[in-house]
Amino acid sequence: MTLTDDRMGPTLFERSKPGRGGGKVPHPPKDALARIPAGFLRAEGARLPQVSEPELARHYVNLSRLNYSVDTGFYPLGSCTMKYNPKVNEWAARLPGFGGLHPLAPDELAQGTLQLLWELEAALAEIGGMKAVTLQPAAGAHGELTGILMIRAYHLSRGDTERCEVLVPDSAHGTNPATASMAGFKTVTIPSAADGGVDVEAFRAALGPRTAAIMITNPSTLGLFESRLCELLEAVHEAGALAYMDGANLNAIMGRFKPGEAGFDVMHINVHKTFSTPHGGGGPGAGPVGVGERLVPFLPSPRVLREADGRFRLETTGERPSSIGRVRAFAGNTGVLVRAYAYIRAHGAVGLAEVSDDAVLAANYLKTRLAAVLDVPFSRPCMHEFVASSATLKAETGIRTLDIAKRLIDYGIHPPTIYFPLTVEEALLIEPTETESLETLDSFVEAMRSIVNEAHADPDLLHSAPHSSPVRRLDETTAARQPNLRWRTMTGSQSLCPD
Ligand SMILES: *Cc1c(COP(=O)(O)O)cnc(C)c1O
User: Fold this and answer.
1) Is 454 in the pocket of ligand 1 (CB under 6 A)?
2) Are 387 and 79 in contact (CB under 8 A)?
3) b/e for 336-357, b at 16 or more Cβ within 10 A?
4) Partners of 313 in the beta sheet?
5) Rounded distance from Cα 248 to ligand 1 centre (Å)
6) In 3D, which of 134, 140, 103, 130 has the Cα closest to residue 121?
7) What helix, strand, coil percent values describe the chain, rounded to 5?
8) 316-364 pLDDT, tens per residue?
9) What residues have CB less than 8 Å from 45, skipping those under 6 apart?
10) Are 132 and 346 in contact (CB under 8 A)?
């Protein structure tokens, strides 16, 4: 069986024919090459594919049609908040004053962008119940690192040098322990309680003079709100440690719960999740970090400052020596931040609370309907996402979560997150978001019901799925261990045009 079909056409390099190309672009002056200093001239031509403009346009448009996106269909990828990205955000980000601003423009010429960043910091601080916010980090994981580095700086500034451990529950997102390790801490994993929440007793037992911080995802990766938060935060502060909240799941709680007011010292926000800026494929995001009083001195520099006369400026180098320094070039991923600002202003405070209400409602609706089709391990109401499991189906038919996910592709639906969280067997983490219609949610349930029927009637159909995609089921182990990410010239019998 071949792994791909003819929709995976040849690459541009394979289409290349010597001498073919554009030539319809305005010609440079005849002496253009002579104007370039000799040292900068290429010795040989760049090895670029030689194709005509229509070939080029078709190649990329056809590739783009193989993409699955939020603009083409339902994308219930748990933990990722794949909500619709309003087009007004794109309009705002493309306004020439934002899109065309040079990152090194002097403050006098960047007043509009600086004001937007300043106002966005204030809005995010309000939403998180935090004292101040940095917009620099490029993504959630980067925000975590920034937050933990600030916690480290805080302890060191107090001469508290023995704190070398970060406590993380076993249901945490993988980036949490990775962050703690990258910042030089030892991760101590704490098992969850039977109800999916944090096991406070286990946390208490692990807390001590070596604890620098705890990292809690709230709502958790099981889609559950941490019911023992007050107890937990009290214990953490009593032990002299700080509390980090992974705020990636803010879409369930914004406008309803402020982590800073509850006692968290620091949190990151994924604007590319909650605030509808596009993501997927690893594309640019932003992971602003909000901090409480204690961590304000350590925020990355430069911060955006507002002068008494109302003008904005960036901090100068060395202006705030307690800062942990820069974590990202310039002011962060500004284009993404403009989109987040547009989204927040379009919704307002009431609208943002409605967003989280609707996200929670959609998830609970789907969870309740899906409970008739698959296992749903936690019965209490969920937040904006929930965990289902195919453990029973696997016992009955041998069909695994992976098979269900692959088969969903044939139904034109993006699979949910699978095998995460790790603590649930054959897990599917399903996050519908607030932007999906009742009809879409219902059609997802029908697709899942139909797949479960297929699992009983024709398991082979599922083992070999997907059948409709341009790429068939891959050997995931080989794909992970020996990724082939780069095109190389094929020679001899491998080549489409054998030499
Ligand atoms: C998405 C996510 C992260 C990481 O965010 P990135 O922006 O992908 O780096 C961390 N924690 C949780 C719970 C998440 O869902």
Assistant:
1) no
2) no
3) bbbbbbbbbeebeeeebeebbb
4) 305
5) 6
6) 134
7) 40, 10, 50
8) 999 999 999 999 999 899 999 999 999 999 999 999 999 999 999 999 9
9) none
10) no
Please give the Cα distance from 169 to 187 (Å, whole number).
Answer: 10
Angle at alpha carbon of residue 111, lines to 139 and 332, rounded to 5°: 10
Type of residue found at 274: T
CB 270 less than 6 A from any atom of ligand 1: yes
What is residue 389's three-state secondary structure?
strand
Q: Where are the alpha helices (DSSP H) in 20-169?
A: 53-64, 87-94, 96-99, 111-128, 140-157
At 417, the amino acid letter reads T
Ligand 1: centre distance to CA 200 (Å):
24
Three-class SS state of 30: coil
Question: What distance in Å separates the CA atoms of residue 448 and residue 443, rounded to the nearest whole number?
Answer: 9
Tokens of 453: 């029927």
As a whole number, mean pLDDT of residues 242-250 equals 98
Block residue for tokens 């594919």:
49
End-to-end CA distance of the chain: 26
| Segment 422-451, tens digit of pLDDT | 889 999 999 999 999 999 999 999 999 999
Q: What is the largest CA-CA distance in the chain?
A: 78
Tokens linked to 275: 């605030």
Task: Give the Å distance between the CA of 417 and the centre of ligand 1.
Answer: 13
For residue 422, CA distances in Å to 85, 171, 179, 187, 242 come to 29, 7, 18, 17, 26
109: Cβ contacts below 8 Å, ≥ 6 apart: 101
**Residue located nearest, by CA, to atom 3 of ligand 1:** 140
